[in-house]
Amino acid sequence: MRVHQELRVSSLLCRSPALPPQFNNLKPPPRYDESVRLLVLASLLIFTAWAGDPLVERGYVHFYNLDFDESIADFQGAIALHPNDPELHNHLAQTIVFQEMCRDGALESEMVSGNNSFLRWPKLNPSARTEQWFLDEVAKAMALAQARIDKNPKDAAALYALGISYGLRSNYYWVVKKAWHDSLKDATTARRLHARVEALEPDNVDARLVEGLHDYIIGSLPWTWRTLGFLIGMHGDKETGIRIVQDVAAHGSDNRIEAEVFLGALYRRENQTRRAVPIVEDLIRRFPRNYLLRLELSQMYSMAGDKTNALAAVGKVVELKTKHAPGYDRVPWEKIYYQQGTIEFWYGELDHALGHLQQVAAAPEVDLNTGVYTYLRIGQIYDLQQHRAQALEAYRKAIAYAPEADGAQEARKYLETPYRRRAG
């Protein structure tokens, strides 16, 4: 079967108009990158039904527990039984890319400040084999879904699967190729496909999750970028978007978990961390091997001004790792030290913070996000302690570690002017 064939998709659903000249040289606004990251991950995390198929159900339990190798094996087993199901190829493709993102620290957010700019992350560098494997699975899913749509343009399941495929490719353009314009186009196509599903099945609450996330994201952008959204057929309103996601989280079936994940992210972005905490705690109960959820819980407490519970949440990770609880042997100590050090940094415990962050810096290897922010925070601590020469050395290391990263951009500012805490 030819898997890289040209896809004959309705222009109404899948064609994004060319941008007018005045938009060609626009740079994304400060929070555009954060919004598009959320949009990309939304398109990636919204799955079709996984109840009823034991292999698929088990695959997603492994997925949400970060057991990616086991998840991949389950989805491959399901594909062997049903090779012509586009949904299964989507499941496999999204697990491949999430495994790569987890390995590179791309599933984590910057502690406390929330200012991590995904746009300025260096490109991920998957192996050629991994990249081709992912692209092949997406192409297979697209071809299989399109073949069904060609036979029946009202095949809601095929339209939905094709939308997921475009979401997957959108994520690929974003995190691997750093092609944000192509990524937005594919994310827009995913939304249009799922809007078509909503028209065919108006009672399908799950299909509205993409719509809700798009509404929130477009509604969060500055006026110029909202105008761009209008030009490509996307309108947005933050409050409407949140209400839709809340509805899916409360009444959805297939996408309820995904809606909860994104509702927690939206609450956090809106500085409503107290509303986000119960959601994350519920996800921890359901997926106990997912250590990222506990680290996220720590961040949420810290953002809410609750240092005690923030450090206690990290302490629970330490306890579970020490006891060799399932899933926790794979947590690098460096991530734990980084989490502790960053909380201590923001709460003014500079000596403790420096000790923990220096343990991270001494590690043979850490992911880009952790590495660049470790050196940035060390530099800021030295500036606050009036050790300018050591601060400059740390800032230069942050820049060298990942020159395009947001932390490196921030470090460059302090080469000229020492870091100082703002009053209050």
Structure report:
The protein has 424 residues and is mainly alpha-helical. The protein folds into two domains: 31-270, no CATH class; 332-424, Tetratricopeptide repeat domain (Serine Threonine Protein Phosphatase 5, Tetratricopeptide repeat, Alpha Horseshoe). It has 20 helices and no strands. Helix 16 runs parallel beside helix 18 (368-384). The longest helix is centred in the first third of the chain and has 24 residues, at 128-151. The chain is globular and about 70 Å long. It starts with 10 loop residues before the first helix and ends in an 8-residue tail after the last helix. The model is unreliable at 1-44 and 110-121 (pLDDT under 50).
Biggest beta sheet summary: none
Q: Helix coverage percent of residues? A: 55-70%
Low-confidence stretches: 1-44, 110-121
The count of helical stretches stands at: 20
In short:
By secondary structure, the chain is mainly alpha-helical. Helices cover 67% and strands 0% of the residues. It folds into two domains: 31-270, no CATH class; 332-424, Tetratricopeptide repeat domain (Serine Threonine Protein Phosphatase 5, Tetratricopeptide repeat).
Which properties best describe this structure?
20 helices, mainly alpha, Serine Threonine Protein Phosphatase 5, Tetratricopeptide repeat, single chain, 2 domains, 424 residues, disordered N terminus
Q: How are the secondary structure elements laid out?
A:
Elements lengths: L10 H4 L17 H14 L8 H11 L3 H14 L4 H18 L24 H24 L4 H20 L4 H21 L8 H12 L2 H9 L6 H14 L4 H14 L3 H14 L4 H13 L3 H16 L10 H14 L3 H12 L6 H17 L3 H14 L4 H11 L8
Helix pairs in contact: 2-7, 2-8, 2-9, 3-4, 4-5, 5-6, 5-7, 6-7, 7-8, 9-11, 11-12, 12-13, 13-14, 14-15, 15-16, 16-17, 16-18, 17-18, 18-19, 18-20, 19-20
